[in-house]
Amino acid sequence: MSPIISVAFAALLAAAAADFDTIFLKNGGRVLGTIVEEDPARGVSICLPGGEQRDLKPAEVHRIRYGDGTVKTYGDLPMPAQPAPPPPAPASAEPQPPAPPTSPVEPVPEGAPVAPAEPFPPYAGPETAAPGVAPMPPETPGPITLAASLFRLFPGGDVEASMAMKDFTTAMTGLGLEAGLRLTPKFLVGGSLDMAFGRPGPALEAWCGGWGMTCDTADVKLGLMARYAFTPAASSTPWVGVGVAFDVLMALSDATEQTPSYGGGEPRLSAGWDLRLNRTIGVGAFVTASTSRYPDVDRGDGEIVPIDRRARHTWLQLGVRGILFP
Hints:
Layout: H1 3-17, E1 21-25, E2 30-39, E3 43-47, E4 53-56, E5 61-65, E6 71-73, E7 144-160, E8 163-164, H2 165-168, E9 172-182, E10 187-198, H3 202-210, E11 215-229, E12 236-253, E13 261-276, E14 281-292, E15 296-298, E16 304-306, E17 313-324
């Protein structure tokens, strides 16, 4: 090994050691690693860079130098003195062969393959920390969370007694916005706005065609919600939620004539799974279901007609969302 490589290797070892705690032993040795437990009666437990834990008794420890540079002395015994070199041989004596190396490590023959050093184990998270190493505390989510979603909205049931939902509108594609306030790490309340657009079903398309119009459909939901997350500080968490929304289903036309619209309140049940990429960004998937009835319909000509109470409709919402401050 050339002198330049030796100096560089020594500098790398010194830089790596500066990040660890160092235990100086009374027998002259030293141990590098991360101290996980220290008790004057039981001794010191240290996690070695390879993940192995070593326990040292108080009688073995002379002093500790921590990674931040502070030093703690365990005993006043001096470090053992190095053995004195042997006296030089008399000038008249014949030269002696050099003494064999005293190192317990056998030299590696030149050209022999050398096994790579075992890397430090990566941090595996608070649930799977290495044995003997204190787990990192979980990150508690902040009080505010925001989200934007892309979803598909599927209608079902009857919009009124004489018309099924699928006759009024096809499945819709929508965008959603959501803002929440965490009262506790697991419990959140907030509001949401969903807007979806689709094509008319057969009955609505025939009605619009009779007036010489081209129609589309839209649905708007303005709601309040409460949500419970099961593991809010983990990297991923399932959640469930309940809420209520005011829902408006309408036909949109390119003509000046007014088109029919329905409106009413609806209870909602939701469930989902969120993944925290970091403390700022997350992603998730969700499903929301609701069932209700529209109390009346605005025909578009100023007449509001009550709807038979037996006509009930359903919505099934499937989507994905991006989360800010998950």
